[in-house]
Design a protein that fits this description.
The complex is a heterodimer of chains A (about 325) and B (about 280). By secondary structure, chain A is α/β, with parallel strands linked by helices. Chain A has twelve helices and 14 strands. The chains are: A alpha/beta (about 325), B alpha/beta (about 280).
Chain lengths: ~325, ~280
């Protein structure tokens, strides 16, 4: 039941995006980058410097950026748009809906500063609804990698995926645990820890919180399985069903609204196939506020402590 | 193409438009009729396209984006009459399982269409993206667009206009259907556009004014526009048209923007439009 994982440093997931994009630029001349005045925040500078002719600064005009990206695909380009998650989704939902998703355009919408861990900027910028909005769109894949290395791997993987993708990552430096040589397959979940008492299914920054929670639970004799569900859509239903067949209950954990997020997607799989107790760690129908990232996670009940507590609750319902 | 042939094609397209919308008691005949001459000359004289070998990426071909997707009937008729798909398919417009959706879409695979449109204001951005890709690909063909004048009330149009000038997108020829009418009434009353020519010029565009219901005026405008391609500035045609052109009771009003004629009104319209090339 040992729950050990090597921590391989600490970096922000957005830097993983920046490095992945730079490597893609070297490997594929059809890869182009677009940014709406947040090049530094998105870590797109390296790509911009290396490939100035393939980098398009659109200014503070996100709707136009999404449309230009969609049009570029017609000439065979693979556009990666970059801005904060809030401006990548809610602000441009109709543009994504009509010009990208419905028009079946091969655009990669890359969104940084997602969720509460954007921190001090406060609720105007802390989007917690984006996964829901994006997963509802037909043709759209939704990917939320867990750490720096996985974000780099996911960035490279989405270039080879034909069709629109929403790639969500964040601002703060967080622990790295994904090995450089780990394979990233869109739609294939990763089991971080095997266990038999409770399945903790998490995405993004919450995978590390789930790891800490599993280690805490082990101290009280609870053998928790931790699944890194980096792809919300298409969802790895088999991984969920195989896990709950062993554990009999689930906790989902996400830096997102409970409404419409990963937990909702997992609940659909359970209710149709194997209805078992599920509990949710997520933001409960409220906006965020200014503060330090980890303080916000605690205040809004999405820290490792909340996962521990919620796992006990889920197990009590078995 | 000879002007007489263009006139015959445009008249037949106008018959197609009123028959299509009447058959399903829905659709947008007004703007479609007004733009029939523009579409006819664009697809039969101006653009370099291959109707028999439509490809999504349009490499080494001119491209067209319809931003005001609600005037789909005129586009569908023009595409069918130019050979992109069988003319008989016009009978399926707005019906279940049709490739001819109420507003244009790509998901049904209708040849000639590269983007969904209908939610207004998005076509110029997409056309600019396609124009940027052509530059990257060293493809010197031109990207054309059409927008409604009411559509210019959407903010995204002006984001795109600003970008095109700043980035010297000089392989795009946008067109505004300047008919002065929108669903709720005259554009001047709903939300005035002010001095449209000066607005586009202030945004850094070359502007050309023309009469979109006159083939000579259309021909001269495109000739002038082509002489400006590659000169560092985007180009816009401000095209005066008459909404409902060709059907007397639909002209001079906004009332036929989004309303279909009934059987009696259809007969009246068809009596004013000679069947030049055979109905579908």
């Amino acid at each position: 039941m040992e729950k050990h994982i090597d921590q391989l440093g600490e970096k922000d997931t957005r830097s993983g995006f920046g490095e992945g994009l730079l490597e893609l630029g070297k490997e594929n001349e059809n890869v182009v980058g677009l940014c709406a005045d947040l090049t530094g925040s998105l870590k797109m500078n390296a790509f911009q410097d290396a490939f100035p002719e393939r980098f398009f600064q659109v200014g503070i005009a996100e709707a136009n950026m999404i449309g230009i990206a969609a049009g570029m695909t017609i000439g065979g380009k693979i556009p990666f748009t970059g801005t904060f998650a809030n401006f990548s989704t809610g602000r441009v939902y109709d543009q994504i809906r009509q010009s990208v998703a419905y028009s079946q355009k091969n655009v990669k919408i890359c969104a940084s500063h997602a969720g509460l861990t954007l921190g001090e900027d406060g609720a105007t910028h802390q989007i917690l609804e984006d996964i829901g909005m994006m997963k509802m769109l037909p043709n759209m894949a939704v990917i939320v990698p867990a750490d720096f290395t996985q974000t780099k791997q996911a960035t490279k993987a989405v270039a080879n995926h034909e069709g629109p993708v929403y790639l969500r990552f964040g601002r703060p430096k967080r622990p790295i645990f994904t090995p450089d040589d780990q394979e990233f397959v869109i739609g294939k979940a990763q089991t971080v820890f095997e266990g038999k008492d409770v399945s903790i299914i998490a995405c993004g920054h919450m995978v590390w919180e789930a790891i800490i929670a599993a280690q805490e639970l082990a101290k009280e004799g609870v053998d928790a399985e931790v699944i890194n569900m980096h792809t919300i859509k298409p969802l790895d239903e088999k991984a969920i069903l195989d896990s709950v067949a062993k554990t009999g209950c689930v906790v989902t954990a996400e830096e997102h609204m409970i409404n419409g997020g990963l937990g909702d997607s997992v609940a659909q799989v359970l209710s149709r196939n194997n209805p078992l107790p599920q509990e949710y760690v997520g933001v409960n129908d409220t906006f965020g506020e200014s503060g330090k990232p980890m303080d916000l996670m605690k205040k809004y009940n999405i820290s490792s402590e909340n996962i521990v507590e919620t796992a006990r609750k889920a197990m009590s319902r078995k | 193409m000879e002007t007489k042939k263009l006139e015959n094609l445009a008249t037949q397209t106008r018959r197609d438009i009123v028959r299509m919308v009447a058959a399903v008691s829905s659709g947008h005949p007004g703007g479609s009729l007004g733009c029939a001459d523009f579409f006819t000359i664009l697809y039969n004289e101006i653009m370099d396209v291959d109707p028999n070998n439509f490809s999504m990426n349009g490499e080494n071909e001119d491209l067209f984006f319809l931003s005001n997707g609600h005037i789909s009937p005129v586009w569908y008729s023009t595409l069918a009459r130019a050979g992109f798909f069988p003319v008989e398919e016009l009978a399926t417009f707005r019906k279940l399982n049709s490739r001819l959706q109420g507003h244009p879409s790509t998901d049904k695979g209708l040849p000639g269409i590269r983007a969904a449109s209908g939610s207004l204001g998005q076509g110029l951005s997409m056309a600019i993206g396609a124009a940027e890709a052509k530059k990257l690909n060293n493809d010197n063909k031109i990207v054309y667009t059409l927008h409604g004048d009411g559509e210019l009330q959407e903010g995204q149009i002006w984001e795109a206009a600003m970008y095109a000038a700043a980035h010297k997108i000089d392989n795009i020829i946008a067109t505004v259907d300047y008919n002065g009418r929108q669903i709720d009434g005259d554009v001047e009353d709903v939300l005035s556009l002010g001095d449209l020519n000066k607005k586009w010029q202030a945004f850094g565009w070359e502007t050309i004014e023309l009469d979109g219901n006159d083939f000579e005026s259309l021909r001269n405008a495109f000739k002038q526009a082509h002489s400006l391609v590659g000169k560092g500035k985007p180009i816009v045609l401000l095209m005066k048209t008459e909404m409902g052109q060709g059907v007397d009771y639909m002209m001079g009003t906004h009332k036929w923007h989004g309303a279909a004629p009934n059987a009696e009104q259809l007969d009246d319209a068809l009596n004013q439009l000679e069947e030049t090339l055979g109905d579908y």
